[in-house]
C-alpha cells in the first residue's frame, strides 16, 4: 500500500490496520483508562475490536457500508470505532449532543446500515430515537447499544456482539475511511469524507509536531468524535506513539482536574470557553496538575489575556491549534517565542499546505492584510460528501477550500484569525449554522421571520441570539425554546437569547444588518436603552 504524501514515515497504514499494528508494538501498555479507573491494554482493546468486527460481520454489516456513531467518550466509543475500521465499514462521526433533527438529516445523507448509541445517557432516550430512525430510514438494519438496557428492543448489545474473524478490507490510501461532521453554514448538514491516507497523515504528522511520545497521557475531555480530540493529534496521535488516553464524559474542573492528578495526565486539548472555566476553577480546585506538559487550545479564538492566564494558572506550556474538520491544521510550535504562542494561531502542519488570503473577488490581498482563507493541501478535502451543489460554492475551481475565516499573516508566516465571513455561530467551539437556527424558528407558529446571530459572550465565546418578528401577538421566549427542543433541534442550537424586533436594521445594500443586530443584542442583554436601528 502506498501513501505517497506521507513523507519519512515508513509505517503508514490504512486505518483498519492501525490498531493491530499498535497492539503488536505496544501490546501490554495501557491504551485506555476511564473515569472509574478501569484500564485497557492495547492488546485488550484490539481483541475487543476484533471480536466486535466479527460480530458485526456475522450480523450482516459489510465493508464499504456506513455506520453512524453517536457515542460519548467511553471505552465503547473506541471499541466500536476500531471495529468498524477493521471491518472496513465507514464510521459517520455524530456528536452525542445532537438530537432528532440532526440525526435524521445525517441519516438521510449518509444512509447508514448501523447506528451505535449509548445506553445510559442522562435525560435523552437514544434507543427510542433509534427506533424512530429505523422506521424512517429503510437502510438502517442494525442498532448497537453500549450497555445493558432493561428493554433493548431490537438493538444489539455492543459487549455481547462477537463472531469469528471477518475478512480484511482492501483499502487504498485514497479510499474514504470516515465521515466527519461539518460545522455547516447551511440549513442542511454536510459530511466530510476523510481518506485513509490523509487521516493517517493528520494524526501521525501532528503527533510528531506536538512531541507526542510513549510516556505521555492524553486526557480526552472534549467529544472524541471531533477532529481536534480524535486526530489533531488527539487520541489517534497518542495511540500512534504508544501513549495512554484517559477518557472522561465530564469536562468540569471538579472531575477533570482530580483525574489529571490521579492519572498523571501530560497533554490535554481544550476549547477557549472550557479553558476559561478551568482558569477560574483553579481559584478553589487544588488538584496537583504538575504532570501537565502541554495544553492545546483550539476550535475558536483564544484571547491573548486568557492565553496568559492559562500559562500562569496551569503552569505548563501552551499550544494554539487552528484547525478544521475539512483538513488544514495550524499549530504554534513548541519552541516558538512566547509572543507567537500567545498572539497567533500558528502555521500549517504540512509544508505542502497551500494558503491563499483573498478579497471578495478572490484576488490575493497584500502581505500582512486580512483576507478570506482559502486552502488546499495533502489532507484537505476537495469536496463534501454527496453535495455537488454545495461544493461549487465551498471550493474554487482549482480545488481550494473556502474556509470562510478571515485571517492575516504575521511577519513570520503565522496565521492570526481575525474573524469570519461564514454565517456560523461558534458557541463553545461548537459550530452552528445561523441559517439552520433561522429555518427552525421560521417553522414555529407565531414567528413571521427570524434572524440568528452570534453575540460575544463571556462564558460561551459566542451565544446564539435570535431576533424574531412575531406574527401579531407577543412571543414567549421560554415557549419558543421549548418548541424548538420539542421539534428535535439539538440543545446547543437552541438560542440563548431571544428578542423581538419590529423592523430589521438594513445595510446600505438593503440587506439585514447582522452586525447591527449583534450590537442591539448586546445592548438589550445589558439593559442599556437600545438605540433605534
Ligand atoms: C475545529 O474544527 P471545526 O471543523 O469544528 O471548525 C473549524 C472552524 C474554523 O474554520 C474556524 O472558523 C474555527 O473553527 N476555528 C478557530 C480556531 N480553530 C478553529 N477560530 C479561531 N481560532 C482557532 N484556534 O474547530 C478544529 C479541528 C481540528 C483542530 C482544532 C480545531
TrEMBL record:
Give the AMP-dependent synthetase/ligase domain ranges.
20-385
**Which pathway is this protein engaged in?**
Siderophore biosynthesis
**What UniProt keywords apply to this chain's record, in alphabetical order?**
Ligase, Membrane, Transmembrane, Transmembrane helix
Record-annotated AMP-binding enzyme C-terminal domain positions = 436-511
Q: Which residues cross the membrane?
A: 75-94
Is Transmembrane helix among the key words of this record?
yes
Which Gene Ontology molecular function entries are recorded, alphabetically? acid-thiol ligase activity; isochorismate synthase activity; oxo-acid-lyase activity
Q: Does the keyword Transcription apply?
A: no
Protein name (database record)? Salicylate synthase
Q: Which residues of the full protein are shown?
A: 1 to 533 of 970
Amino acid at each position: 500500500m502506498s501513501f505517497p504524501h506521507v513523507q519519512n514515515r515508513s509505517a503508514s497504514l490504512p486505518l483498519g490496520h492501525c490498531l493491530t499494528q499498535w497492539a503488536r508494538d505496544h501490546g501490554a501498555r495501557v491504551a485506555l483508562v476511564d473515569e472509574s479507573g478501569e484500564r485497557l491494554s492495547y492488546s485488550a482493546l484490539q481483541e475487543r475490536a476484533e471480536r466486535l468486527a466479527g460480530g458485526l460481520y456475522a450480523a450482516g454489516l459489510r465493508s464499504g457500508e456506513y455506520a453512524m456513531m453517536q457515542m460519548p467518550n467511553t471505552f465503547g466509543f473506541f471499541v466500536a470505532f476500531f471495529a468498524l475500521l477493521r471491518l472496513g465499514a465507514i464510521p459517520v462521526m455524530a456528536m452525542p449532543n445532537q438530537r432528532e433533527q440532526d440525526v435524521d438529516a445525517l441519516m438521510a445523507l449518509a444512509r447508514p446500515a448501523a447506528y451505535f448509541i449509548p445506553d445510559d445517557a442522562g435525560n435523552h432516550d437514544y434507543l427510542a430515537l433509534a427506533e424512530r430512525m429505523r422506521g424512517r430510514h429503510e437502510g438502517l438494519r442494525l442498532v448497537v447499544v453500549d450497555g445493558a438496557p432493561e428493554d433493548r428492543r431490537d438493538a444489539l448489545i455492543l459487549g455481547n456482539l462477537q463472531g469469528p474473524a471477518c475478512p480484511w478490507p482492501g483499502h487504498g490510501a485514497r479510499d474514504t475511511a470516515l465521515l466527519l461532521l461539518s460545522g455547516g453554514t447551511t440549513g442542511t448538514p454536510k459530511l466530510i469524507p476523510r481518506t485513509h491516507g490523509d487521516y493517517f497523515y493528520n494524526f501521525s504528522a501532528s503527533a510528531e509536531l506536538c512531541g507526542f511520545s510513549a510516556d505521555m497521557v492524553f486526557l480526552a475531555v472534549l467529544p472524541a468524535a471531533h477532529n481536534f480530540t480524535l486526530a489533531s493529534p488527539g487520541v489517534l496521535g497518542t495511540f500512534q506513539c504508544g501513549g495512554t488516553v484517559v477518557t472522561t464524559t465530564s469536562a468540569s474542573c471538579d472531575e477533570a482536574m482530580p483525574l489529571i492528578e490521579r492519572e498523571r495526565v501530560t497533554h490535554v486539548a481544550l476549547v477557549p470557553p472550557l479553558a476559561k472555566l478551568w482558569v477560574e476553577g483553579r481559584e478553589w480546585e487544588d488538584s496537583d496538575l504538575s504532570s501537565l506538559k502541554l495544553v492545546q487550545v483550539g476550535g475558536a479564538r483564544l484571547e491573548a489575556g486568557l492565553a496568559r492566564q492559562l500559562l500562569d494558572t496551569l503552569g505548563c506550556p501552551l499550544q494554539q491549534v487552528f484547525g478544521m474538520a475539512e483538513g488544514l491544521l495550524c499549530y504554534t510550535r513548541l519552541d516558538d517565542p512566547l509572543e507567537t504562542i500567545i498572539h497567533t494561531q500558528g502555521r500549517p502542519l504540512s509544508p505542502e499546505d497551500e494558503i491563499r488570503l483573498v478579497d471578495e473577488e478572490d484576488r490575493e490581498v497584500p502581505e500582512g492584510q486580512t483576507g478570506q482563507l482559502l486552502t488546499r493541501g495533502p489532507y484537505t478535502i476537495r469536496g463534501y460528501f454527496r453535495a455537488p451543489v454545495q461544493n461549487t460554492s465551498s471550493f474554487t475551481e482549482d480545488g481550494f477550500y473556502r474556509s470562510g475565516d478571515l485571517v492575516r499573516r504575521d511577519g513570520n508566516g503565522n496565521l492570526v484569525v481575525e474573524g469570519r465571513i461564514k454565517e456560523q455561530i461558534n458557541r463553545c467551539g461548537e459550530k452552528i449554522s445561523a441559517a439552520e437556527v433561522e429555518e427552525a424558528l421560521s417553522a414555529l407558529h407565531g414567528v413571521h421571520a427570524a434572524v440568528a446571530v452570534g453575540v460575544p459572550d463571556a462564558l460561551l465565546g459566542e451565544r446564539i441570539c435570535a431576533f424574531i418578528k412575531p406574527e401579531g401577538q407577543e412571543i414567549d421566549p421560554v415557549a419558543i425554546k421549548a418548541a424548538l427542543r420539542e421539534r428535535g433541534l439539538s440543545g446547543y442550537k437552541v438560542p440563548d437569547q431571544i428578542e423581538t424586533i419590529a423592523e430589521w436594521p438594513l445595510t446600505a445594500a438593503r440587506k439585514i444588518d447582522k452586525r447591527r443586530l449583534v450590537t442591539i443584542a448586546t445592548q438589550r442583554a445589558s439593559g442599556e436603552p437600545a438605540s433605534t436601528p
